Amino acid sequence: MLGLAIAVLMGGAIQDAHAYREMSVDLKTLTQTDDPMAPIIERFSADRRDLDRIYDVETSQKTFAGRRAFYHDWLDALGKLPFDSYNTVAKVDYVLLKNRIEGDLADLDVQERRIAKAAKYLPDLSIPTSLIEANRNMEPVDPEASAKKLTELADLLAAKQSEIKAPAPVKEEPDARFAAQMVDNYRQGLKHWFDFYNGYDPEFSWWCKKPYEQADHALDSYIKYLNEQVAKTETGEITGDPVGREALMLDLQRAMIAYTPEELIDIANKEYAWCEKEMIKASREMGFGDDWKKALEAVKEDHVAPGEQPEMIRKLAWQAIDYVTKNDLVTVPDLAKRSWRMEMMSAERQKVSPFFLGGQTILVSFPTDEMTEEDKEMSMRGNNKHFAMATVHHELIPGHHLQGFMNARYNTYRRAFSTPFWTEGWALWWEMLLYERNFPQTPEDRIGFMFWRMHRCARIIFSLKFHLGEMTPQQCVDFLVDKVGHERANAEGEVRRSFNGSYPPLYQLAYMTGALEFRSLYKDLVRSGKMTAKQFHDTILHLNNMPIDAIRMIMKDKPPTRDYKTSWKFYTDP
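^ thats the sequence. predicted structure below, dont judge the formating
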């Protein structure tokens, strides 16, 4: 029996080793880059990481001054490089690094103005700042003096709380929430300071334990007062702080997008109108005439039973992998095909992410036993067979999993320039290309694809209008329900995720905008016959994550000037 067991184990090992040997390993593509900017960018990234370790009190004046000095030193150093002698790739990398540094400097200005705007609701934070920074600099602690500072802090917070009137004017509610967030950051920093000494230094614990508890309680009370009484934030309410047009324009410049927020909204409306026409075509095929929302409701009802979602996802994943490889659209290494995994998403997380998430692991959204019956139904309807057909390849291959696999292996120094326009734009571009190639063949599947595409158009509209101060979170929810056909709970989760601080302001518009950039570049390079589809997609993956205008310059060999600012108008009507 032992011999048989060993034979079985060895047989499995031999079979697995054989499978590994079948994977192609082409070391010729791994030669060291001759780009002179590569080691410079790697040095910047390493320095930038250590800078964060030094200046970890995000809003202190020392942090602002230290970071500004760092960025200006780097700009001065860049100015001395022999830019004119560089080839196109090196010039693009130079511009990307310069753009990154200038963007980080602009962020500091925006953040300081944001703090000044919220100053009315901010207490004096010099005491926690001094304690946290002294600990960061490994200065000896004075327990008695620290105890006095903590007591003073508790008194200052109580006085400030009694000074601020509640509720705040509507226009100042975001300022109060921002102030609460800042104070909470300091509360967490002070906790780290206290935990560092408490229990290790007996004298410190003797002096500081009670004063710290009082100060922590005062901080907690102040944060709750700002959120609940001043900003009038109710439990479970969807909140967010519009950043305004100026901040949006700065972010668009950093992303190398040569359009204004208003122009992007106009583009989204044009794309939405095209999607609606496609929806109507599919609706007619299903027998619902021009009422595509009725057809959409029928599609939502076509979902698998509880417990069967993982098997459906597996089949859809391999359907997409087989399609892109058999049609020679992109290189998919065997190791990439085998290394993705699947996990089920918790009920709590589905409140924020009601649909699949992915990368190396696809997180599957579907009902759990702890949900209410209503939420279970909405989860099944929102993650039906036909919506999933577009979602699975978006998250895995050729979407995010293939992206991450290749990003870890080619030109990794360019991670310093990563942008959601590349990340999300790539995944949505594949939805566009596969739709065009009739990958979704039934009208139900085409409606599933168009639902998501309409959703990405809607994301541009509601996210920009929110940050421009033209829509409230509740209006954004209603917009998704009315214009796209979302289940209300799923729309609430989408809006909550968009504005709760998990994603930067441009993230939601990056899906469609990035995909349209890729669509324009594909037209120029593939439809013109200059490259094959496989060459096009492989090159993008090898170049790594960066603004798509930079990819355009490299792939079309159009070197930028030293002070290049994007002017690429990539959009054409669908």
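Residues 1-25 have pLDDT under 50 and may be disordered.
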